[in-house]
Structures are given as structure tokens and as C-alpha cells.
């Protein structure tokens, strides 16, 4: 069955974006399947899969702004900047006020340069940085211009802070947490992350991982796939 369109999946924690792509390709017999923006194994939420002819607009969909809800933990820095890494530094967490936290978060709004983490899929001379990191190597990474359009603090329960941000393509939320921790002088790392929006696409239309696994054929999956005309209308909305 030839199907062209976009499937919105609510990714669970513990698996990679490629794992989801592989399951959809094999289970439903699609020849072309890709995703629009990697989510780390720790992260959950909106993963956009492009199927068939929709792979031609993959770059357009990847370029759109994203929104996330996450939780950072102060007092510990890790080598991956998230909870999947090893703790490399611990410091006491002061009695930070909401005003102190907001003051630093305001510094990371609008356009600014962010240095990608060593534990990432970016490549240096053809070698993924995470492979170099595993070998104990640290190489220079070129800072990239990124943007945060808004931020909100949802909850402060030190040493943890739950927040929401809207950001540009290629933004590393775990690096954002790390940098905030450095500014506050106590270190921090990301312990939870969920992508809630990409462009005009949100989790409201996403199929759960459990429901996806319960389907056995492409015709069963078809009602959950957004057609190319529908994608076009939603992007203009």
C-alpha cells in the first residue's frame, strides 16, 4: 500500500528516534521513512515521521521551531549534560530565588550562540562527536547561532526546576540546562524532556507508542497519517 504523508508519534523514553523509524518501516512495509529532528533516548514527545513522498519535505519540516517542557537538576554536571551521562562535578545548591533563576534564563533568550555538546551526533571530520567522546577525546566545536522565542518556569522545587521553552532548529536543551547551571555557579543537567510542538504540529494529533505497536498493517495505520495536502494547510495555519 502506497502511503505518502506525516505520522506524528508520541515517542517514549528509552529508545532512539531511529528505533521508531525502523519499527515503522519494517512493520508496515514502507520503503521510505525518515524523521524530522532527533530526540535523545531520554526524551519523550513529538516525533514527526515522513513517509513516501513526504520525505521530500523533510528539510522544510525540520527547519521549523520547536517547543519543549523539561526539568533541570542543579548541583550536578554530567559529561553528556543529561541524566544518561556520568556525573563529572558536584556542587552545593544555594537557596536560589525565582528571581535569580529568571535573571539567568532571560540571558538565554532571543538570538545567541550555543556550543554543541561533545556527546552528540554532529560530526568532526566525518566522525560523530559521541564516538570521540567515548574515546575520551574532546575537540573544538564551533558555536552555532540559535534562538529562544520564549521561556516559562512551571515549577521550582530545588534542586529541580521545571520549564518550557520555544526554540529554533538545532537547539540543545541539555546544553541550555548546563549553561544555566554554569551561570548560577552550581552546575546543572537535564533530567526530563518532552517535545510538545514542532511548527504547527503538536502532541494532540500524535499516536501513542502503545497504539502504534498494536497495529499490524499499513491500512490500519493509514487513518493516523496526515496527507500532504493536510500538511500544507497546517503549515500555513
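Sequence proposed for the structure above (237 residues):
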Amino acid at each position: 500500500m502506497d502511503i505518502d504523508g506525516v505520522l506524528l508519534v508520541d515517542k517514549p523514553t528509552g529508545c532512539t528516534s531511529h528505533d521508531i523509524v525502523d519499527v515503522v518501516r519494517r512493520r508496515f512495509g514502507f520503503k521510505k521513512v525518515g524523521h524530522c529532528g532527533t530526540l535523545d533516548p531520554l526524551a519523550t514527545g513529538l516525533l514527526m515521521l515522513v513517509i513516501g513522498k513526504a520525505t521530500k519535505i523533510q528539510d522544510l519540516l525540520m527547519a521549523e521551531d520547536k517547543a519543549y517542557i523539561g526539568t533541570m537538576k542543579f548541583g550536578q554536571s554530567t559529561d553528556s549534560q543529561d541524566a544518561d551521562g556520568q556525573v563529572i562535578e558536584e556542587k552545593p545548591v544555594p537557596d536560589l530565588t525565582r528571581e535569580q533563576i529568571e535573571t539567568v534564563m532571560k540571558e538565554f533568550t532571543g538570538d545567541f550562540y550555543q556550543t554543541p555538546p561533545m556527546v552528540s551526533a554532529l560530526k568532526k571530520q566525518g566522525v560523530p562527536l559521541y564516538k570521540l567522546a567515548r574515546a575520551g577525546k574532546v575537540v573544538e566545536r564551533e558555536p552555532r547561532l540559535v534562538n529562544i522565542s520564549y521561556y516559562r518556569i512551571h515549577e521550582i522545587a530545588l534542586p529541580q526546576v521545571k520549564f518550557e521553552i520555544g526554540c529554533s532548529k538545532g537547539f540543545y536543551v541539555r546544553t541550555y540546562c548546563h549553561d544555566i547551571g554554569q551561570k548560577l555557579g552550581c552546575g546543572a543537567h537535564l533530567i526530563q524532556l518532552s517535545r510538545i510542538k514542532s511548527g504547527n504540529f503538536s502532541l494532540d494529533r500524535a499516536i501513542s507508542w502503545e497504539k502504534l505497536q498494536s497495529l499490524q498493517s499499513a491500512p490500519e495505520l493509514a487513518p493516523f497519517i496526515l496527507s500532504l495536502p493536510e500538511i500544507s494547510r497546517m503549515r500555513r495555519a
